[in-house]
């Protein structure tokens, strides 16, 4: 259970783990590569389950769809939040039951909905009349949840604008959906890498107000989808997972108490991605060049063999700031601009973020980019500038 | 030769071309997909050759490394600017001679330089002492050119900060390089999709000043690399290619005249990427959803089956604004936000750019995104959100 005195997320985790170190020592894989420790994924799954006992966990497959991770989570009893037919197939290949899969993308082709329904998927997201029409036509008898707009404050990778509709529109759509024979619910997303556990409170109050309107019309809500947002440990300290569990439980009790204690208690769903796999991974990268632009330049430019287009896309606008270890840590350091290996000026990882790295850093040194298990491999391009996609290994 | 009355780039080109239309009609390829008309690539190669008769053309492979494009350009007599070992191998597979390949990335692993040199590549870029050390060690007897910093004004995809060093540092490095037995030169890049033909003038003046310093020390410069920057036709009109040729020829004559007319005339190099292949391609994409966020919303959200992570990465910060055709063009239109199909809020193509699309637009409609032959396929992710990489066809 949640422990208020627990340390922040990732604080007690020493990366790379021994298992990752051993794998690299034994196999010497060429850089750049990501190595994911499955034991950390299992620990995180357990910690989140313990912190949010009332919620079913639907892993956000997009965070890292490695077959080994999906198979582990199937074994642990996880459900799955998918964004596409490709992710449905990956889950089924890993042994997931179709009934444990939620098609959480609000933007789906009609034929993809039909395919998912045929495969046995019965849970779908939407946020518009047109998408509901598609679900009515292609996914009869499903559980459909409408995503509402949220502010996304306090999140390092906000998700506020593209998805969701106004709650009043959502109520109308859910009423229609219920009349068409669907079980209905609501979802929201507080933004990825959400640093403030209390950010679930506002949306839950909105959902409660929506549910009261629906109940007045005789519609019994079946699902409350809390979305994701649970963090990994990057440069900035984030609260421990128990704090998220406690804040969410309190908000659920405050806003949805009577409903949650009643006979028609809706299913509570959480969709962690980053939290489960982010801290489980370490990306190993070789320094290619350390240079200065002029003799007067104080800052060095450090170019790695991994960049924005080979896995580190979340450094866009320097949103996600990874911790970086080098073989020279502890020695004198100085300010750097950190960049990737391509001939693209956009491929700069950190400029404003004021990273400092050892003065002794040289080409050939291998740096460890910590907590890179989420949103890296799949963001990798097929071969921009002729560099191959990021390789990954699960240990 | 350059014709001052010629229309702007792309003005007389009607996309999709008949060949592209015929291919799509005959094959009905699933969306999203890119179709590239090789005849346009050949026309562009000829037009640039005619406009810049003095320059050798080194195709920037990163713009589109499709084997069909590389083979065509080998046939036409093009040379190649590459960013990696992967691109060297692609050129060699397409039949290019190693002597026609320039390794233009200033960030290279030592072992990759050694490999390139072993393959017969003899032209290399650098912009720092450390990189020159690698070239001295692994690529003896080469032509090495030092890239200088430029302002990159007037470019839609600027390249100013990551590459290049101060000209005074460049002179020192080139003097060292010459002493180590290399032939030496200078390069710069005015920024990709450069709208102003006069932007080559400033850097050419800098190069001329550098060359005078080198000549005083007895070093004869062997290469002037003009970089790329030649545009495709996106939403904004750009000058015709002859205007670029004329402006560059005038600047070369003004700043480097005596040298260019002397016995040791350096090789003039241009590295077009976007100009050769951009306007040759059309991306076909299906509308997945058209929605509003509330009943009061004036702007519709139009979601396509292609986005930032499946080829349209250059819409980042709405830098490159593609022209879009729909089956309903000519009918009443209204403002839209245009977005991709993934569960990522970053995957919004145009929001501030104020795109208008027909009110009649519906899911299932296929839209044509014009001039997408450059910097699309290779920017595509390996499978973000489970969506496959962008397919492409050359006709």
Write a brief structural summary:
The structure is a homodimer of 395-residue chains. Chain A is elongated and about 75 Å long.
- What is the CA–CA distance across the termini of chain A? 28 Å
Write down the CATH class of the largest domain in chain A: Alpha Beta
Count every beta strand of chain A, where a strand is a DSSP E run of 2 or more residues: 18
SSE order of chain A, one letter for each helix or strand: HEHEHEHEHEHEEHEEHEHEHEEEEEEE
- In the CATH hierarchy, the third-tier topology of the largest domain in chain A is known as TIM Barrel
User: What quaternary form is this?
Assistant: homodimer
Task: Provide key terms for this protein.
homodimer; about 400 residues; alpha/beta; TIM Barrel; Lyase, Ornithine Decarboxylase, Chain A, domain 1; 2 domains; 8-stranded parallel barrel; 18 strands
């Amino acid at each position: 259970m949640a422990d208020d005195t627990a340390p922040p997320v990732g604080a007690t985790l020493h990366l790379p783990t021994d298992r990752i170190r051993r794998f690299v020592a034994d196999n010497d894989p060429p850089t750049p590569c990501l190595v994911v420790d499955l034991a950390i994924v299992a620990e995180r799954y357990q910690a989140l389950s313990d912190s949010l006992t009332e919620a079913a966990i639907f892993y956000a497959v997009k965070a890292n769809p490695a077959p080994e991770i999906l198979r582990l989570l199937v074994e642990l009893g996880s459900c799955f939040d998918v964004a596409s037919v490709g992710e449905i197939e990956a889950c089924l290949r890993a042994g997931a039951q179709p009934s444990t899969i939620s098609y959480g993308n609000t933007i789906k082709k009609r034929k993809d909905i039909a395919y998912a329904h045929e495969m046995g998927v019965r849970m779908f997201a939407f946020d518009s009349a047109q998408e509901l029409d598609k679900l009515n036509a292609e996914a009869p008898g499903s559980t459909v949840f409408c995503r509402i707009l949220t502010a996304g404050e306090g999140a390092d990778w906000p998700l506020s604008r593209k998805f969701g509709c106004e709650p009043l529109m959502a109520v109308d759509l859910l009423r229609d959906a219920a009349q068409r024979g669907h079980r209905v619910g609501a979802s929201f997303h507080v933004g990825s890498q959400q640093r403030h556990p209390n950010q679930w409170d506002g949306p839950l109050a909105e959902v409660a107000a929506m549910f009261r309107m629906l109940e007045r019309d005789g519609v019994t809500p079946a699902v409350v989808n809390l979305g994701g947002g649970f963090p990994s440990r990057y440069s900035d300290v984030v609260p421990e997972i128990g704090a998220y569990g406690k804040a969410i439980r309190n908000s659920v009790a405050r806003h949805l108490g009577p409903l949650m204690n009643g006979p028609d208690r809706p299913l509570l769903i959480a969709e962690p991605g980053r939290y489960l796999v982010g801290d489980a991974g370490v990306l190993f990268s070789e320094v290619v060049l350390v240079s200065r632009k002029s003799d007067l330049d104080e800052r060095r430019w450090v170019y790695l063999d991994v960049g924005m287009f080979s896995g580190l896309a979340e450094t866009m606008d320097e949103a996600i700031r990874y911790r970086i270890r080098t073989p020279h840590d502890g020695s004198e350091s100085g300010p750097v601009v950190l960049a990737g290996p391509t001939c693209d000026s956009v491929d700069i990882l950190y400029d404003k973020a004021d990273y400092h790295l050892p003065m002794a850093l040289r080409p050939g040194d291998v740096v460890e980019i910590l907590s890179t298990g989420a949103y890296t491999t799949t963001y990798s391009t097929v071969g921009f500038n002729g560099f191959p996609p990021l390789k990954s290994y699960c240990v």
